[in-house]
Design brief:
alpha+beta; Translation Initiation Factor IF3; 4-stranded mixed beta sheet; 4 strands; globular
Length: about 70
Amino acid sequence: MKHFLDITRETCPMTFVKVKLQLAKMDTGEQLEVLLNAGEPLENVPRSCEEQGFKVLSNEPTDNDKHLLLIEK
């Protein structure tokens, strides 16, 4: 199952907090698509996810300086 989370209106450190809370609700093997802004969120969220043992499967730029991360729990 794939979940979606838009954190473009959040600022660090809440960006990763929101992602971590969503991942906590998910089962192992499920995937989370995260829409986030370039800059600090793009630097911190993927790194923090990997530090917590989650797998970042892809990081694709979209429009308006936003990126779409695909994370597997």
